[in-house]
Structure formats: structure tokens, C-alpha cells
Design brief:
Number of domains: 2
Distance between the termini: 54 Å
Number of strands: 22
Low-confidence stretches: 1-21, 46-59
Order of helices and strands: HEEEEEEEHEHHEEEEHEEEEEEEEHEEH
Structural class: alpha+beta
Mean pLDDT: 91
Radius of gyration: 23 Å
Shape: globular
């Protein structure tokens, strides 16, 4: 008996070590984009491979999918808020170089706890193809794929987990997922990757923040659309976030953080579009030249933008919040890029991109966050030392070409005509962008990271919020053009509203 206990302890110790150091992954390659989704909802961390002055990479957000160049190095989700005692709870990772804030598996519904057995049981990313589902529906399937057979539709109720987890189509309406009787995963797109993860298995060694006790379900999906250039260069992500803790959180912000690498990683710029709710990375030079190394785009490189299609729910107020005032003028508030405003439906409003801040790979005020307070400040569109971001220049008050007007959006170019980001104040600078940031001269290009945030909002115990995003690789017809990129953004946003917003 003693030997069995020792063996079990060794097995659990090994499993804990593996879960802390390695995440399961699967690859989506349904269209012109190829990338890996890891079991904690992040993607595109590149490992080993080519080398640009010490930068190593292999797997990336590869576009085109048969090439050797990519546009994103890493993409992760941040969330932070305050409990009733004003303590910060924060879950956020960048590269997992410091530690970990997320682990595989769901949380128990009564207290938000979990254990190593649940972490191991859900240590997987499920890959589902629409063609396999169609074969089940049409009774032409000769074999049901393993990921459909093992689809995580149900939790272990006896151990305290939710009865229903991953969505599925229940063909016989018996409430039980059984693919042998015709049930199948309820996915979006022609191919989808799915994972379940949480922030409460262990200490937060990356951000240093207290756990929120959230369970996250992530679906990354896309369409095989060779005749539709815009859709064929887009991946969508839907994330369900459940508050399994007993805490009610306030002043919560959720963010999408992206380390852009447009081919060669250290010659990039960054910006955002306030009206349309997206941020983007683009090459600072007309030619993306990596010194002859593989992984550079060369002439006419693409730009990559990330659009917040639908953020967290606004706090219910019993009305259909309008988009325009009584005179038909656009209201200067969340309705500018939010969803569900003025549609005659009560309390369906969702926040869009409410702030955007960039930071660089350095140790300055623009540099990477290290502790929970710094992550939270960036989510609130402040600098990591707590200073307000100010309009113009490099966003730091007192710097050249920078006003003393606080702002919420960095480098919006001309996309904030209503001055939402400056609380209705006209800052007197028509086009704030990296090309003209310093006294009309360009910024030094470099390795850019951007964070788009939505908030503040309340997140009560037992609630769920759904976040929808799109990752679009925009290919210029001639050279990088913001008006043309806006056309791509409008197309994808309308496609989402008309076909996917359910």
C-alpha cells in the first residue's frame, strides 16, 4: 500500500510539473491563416526556428498558411477588477516566461475550486471540422473522430462541476451528449478549436494577482472561403467567461493583448481605430526586410488588425440605450463602437473597444508590466506607473508634441471625430499616429505590443460574459492604406452581425 501511495505522489508531482510547463495545443488551418491554439486560450507563441538577431520562432500566426512569415507573436486575454474590499484580482499572461495565471479545466460551481485531476482531464484542445459534423448529420460517417467522441459537453456533477460545459446539438432532446445517437458539437465556422481553462488552480506567478475564480471556454474558428478574400484571411474567437467565485467584482476590465510581429519583428508600428473598435500592427517601412532571413514579407507586407466585435455586457438598466441623441447625432459614449445600441432590444448592449494602449519591449514607462497593479493600469488605459495617458506625441505628459489632455486611445489617427477618447475635448491634433508622432516626424520603429480593453463593468458571482473578436490579416492592394483597411473591417463586422451574433 505504501508503494502505491508513493507511486501516486510521483505521478501527481509529474503531472503538476507538466501542466505548469506545457500546454496542449491544436492547429487551425481552415483558410489562408494557420496558427496554434493552446489549452489556456492563447495562440501563436513561436518556438525555435529562424533567427532575426536573436529572435527565434517556428509556429506563428502564419499568413499565408503555406509560407514562412507571420503577423502575430503572441495573443492572450487579460482581465482584472476589484472585490468589495477594493482588492485587485488579476489574471494576465504575456509569454509565460515568468510564470502562469491560467490552467486547463473547469471550476466547481459552488466555490470556484479545482484540482489536478480536473486539470489533467481537460488538458486538451478539441479540433472539430464542419465536414465531419455534416457526415454525422447526413449519416455518411464511416468513423466518428475522437474529438467529437470526447467533446467536453458535461462536467462531473458529483464532484461539483457544471452539468453542461461545451455546447452541443442534442438531436434527441434528452439533455445528454451522445454522438453515437447523432449528437454533435455546436461549433461556429468550417473548423473550430475549443478549450476550457481557469485562473484558480494555483498562484498567479505571471501577474502576481489574486485569482478571480473564473472559468473560460474558448472557441477559435474560421471559414474556408477561397472566393472571399476578406473572410478567408480572418479567424474569429468567442470566449465565454464564468464567474465561479463567490465574489462580486466591480470596475472590471477585460483586454486582448497582442504582440505583433509583421514578418521581421522589430520594424513595426501600431495604431487603433476608435469608431470601428479595432487595433492594428503594420510595417513601418514599405519593404519588410529581414536581412535576407526567412520570415520577412519583403515588398507590400500585410497589416494585422484585431477587432472587438462584441465585448462584455453593460450593466442592465432596463432600457434600450440609444446610439444617437434626439437630433440624430452620434452619442459620445460606448455606443460609438459597442453592440446592441438603439436596436429596440432592452439590456442587450455590449461594450466594444473602450481603450487602447501600446507598449514596447523595454524597461521604460512604455515597457512591459510586471505586477498586478501595472496590468490593471494598462487595462484602464493608463501608463504602468499610474500616470494618465495624454493625447499626442508618445502619450507621456510633458513629452514633445504631447498635450496635457488625458485620453483613452493611443494612436487613433483620425478615427475619433467625436473625441470620445478625450471626453469630448478637441485635442487640436487631427491625425495622431506613429508616422507623425514626434513634432511631425516618425517614431522609431520597433517591437510593438498592443492592448485593447473593454470596461468598466460589474461581474457578479454566477454571471457569464461572452467576448467576440476577429483577427484579420489585411492585404493592401498596392500599399498600406487605412481607408482600405477600414473597408475590410466594415465587411467583417457586418458579416459577424448578420451571421454569427447568436
Amino acid at each position: 500500500m505504501k508503494h502505491k501511495i508513493i507511486i501516486l505522489i510521483v505521478m501527481l508531482s509529474t503531472a503538476c510539473s507538466l501542466c505548469a510547463q506545457w500546454h496542449p495545443e491544436a492547429q487551425i488551418d481552415v483558410n489562408n491563416i494557420k496558427t496554434n491554439l493552446y489549452g489556456t486560450g492563447n495562440f501563436s507563441i513561436m518556438r525555435g526556428g529562424h533567427n532575426f538577431e536573436g529572435f527565434g520562432f517556428v509556429e506563428s500566426f502564419t499568413v499565408p498558411n503555406n509560407g514562412d512569415a507571420g503577423t502575430i507573436y503572441s495573443n492572450t486575454l487579460w482581465i482584472a477588477g476589484l472585490d468589495d474590499n477594493d482588492n485587485i484580482h488579476c489574471s494576465a499572461v504575456r509569454f509565460n516566461q515568468v510564470g502562469e495565471d491560467y490552467w486547463s479545466g473547469p471550476l466547481r460551481v459552488n466555490d470556484g475550486s479545482t484540482d489536478i485531476f480536473a486539470v489533467m482531464d481537460y488538458h486538451h484542445v478539441w479540433k472539430i471540422k464542419r465536414s465531419d459534423i455534416d457526415a454525422i448529420i447526413n449519416n455518411t460517417a464511416t468513423e466518428i473522430p475522437e474529438d467529437i467522441l470526447t467533446w467536453p459537453a458535461h462536467g462531473n456533477v458529483e464532484d461539483g462541476y457544471a452539468a453542461n460545459l461545451a455546447p452541443f446539438v442534442d438531436t434527441d432532446n434528452d439533455g445528454i451528449y451522445n454522438p453515437l445517437k447523432g449528437d454533435y458539437p455546436d461549433i461556429l465556422g468550417d473548423m473550430a478549436l475549443y478549450c476550457i481553462y481557469n485562473d484558480n488552480y494555483d498562484i498567479h506567478s505571471e501577474s502576481g494577482g489574486e485569482a478571480l475564480g473564473i472559468e473560460l471556454h474558448c472557441m477559435l474558428y474560421g471559414f474556408n472561403a477561397p472566393d472571399d478574400e476578406k473572410l478567408n484571411n480572418t479567424l474569429f474567437m468567442r470566449t465565454w467567461i464564468y464567474n465561479r467565485s463567490q465574489n462580486n467584482y466591480n470596475n472590471v476590465y477585460i483586454g486582448n493583448w497582442t504582440d505583433f510581429d509583421i514578418g521581421y519583428p522589430i520594424d513595426d508600428y501600431i495604431g487603433c481605430n476608435v469608431e470601428r473598435g479595432y487595433y492594428y500592427g503594420y510595417n513601418a517601412r514599405a519593404i519588410d526586410d529581414g536581412g535576407g532571413e526567412p520570415g520577412a514579407y519583403g515588398n507590400n507586407p500585410p497589416a494585422q488588425f484585431v477587432m472587438i466585435l462584441g465585448g462584455p455586457n453593460m450593466t442592465p438598466d432596463g432600457i434600450d440605450n440609444p446610439k444617437f441623441d434626439d437630433n440624430g447625432e452620434q452619442l459620445v459614449n460606448e455606443s460609438i463602437n459597442g453592440l446592441g445600441f438603439g436596436d429596440e432590444i432592452v439590456d442587450n448592449e455590449r461594450l466594444g473597444m473602450c481603450g487602447f494602449v501600446y507598449h514596447s519591449n523595454d524597461a521604460t514607462i512604455h515597457g512591459d508590466p510586471e505586477i498586478a497593479e501595472e496590468y490593471y493600469r494598462l487595462l484602464k488605459s493608463e501608463w504602468k506607473n499610474g500616470d494618465k495617458m495624454c493625447y499626442g506625441g508618445n502619450g507621456v505628459a510633458g513629452s514633445p508634441n504631447t498635450t496635457d489632455i488625458p485620453c483613452k486611445f493611443m494612436f487613433p489617427h483620425d478615427s475619433d471625430p467625436y473625441h470620445w477618447g478625450t471626453n469630448g475635448i478637441n485635442p487640436g491634433i487631427d491625425e495622431w499616429c506613429e508616422e507623425t508622432a514626434v513634432n511631425g516626424n516618425p517614431n522609431d520603429y520597433g517591437d510593438r505590443r498592443g492592448l485593447a480593453s473593454s470596461g468598466p463593468f460589474n461581474f457578479s458571482s454566477g454571471e457569464v460574459h461572452v467576448i467576440d473578436k476577429a483577427f484579420v490579416t489585411y492585404w493592401p492592394s498596392i500599399t498600406f492604406d487605412r481607408d482600405e483597411m477600414n473597408e475590410w473591417a466594415d465587411y467583417i463586422k457586418n458579416y459577424f452581425i448578420n451571421n454569427l451574433n447568436k
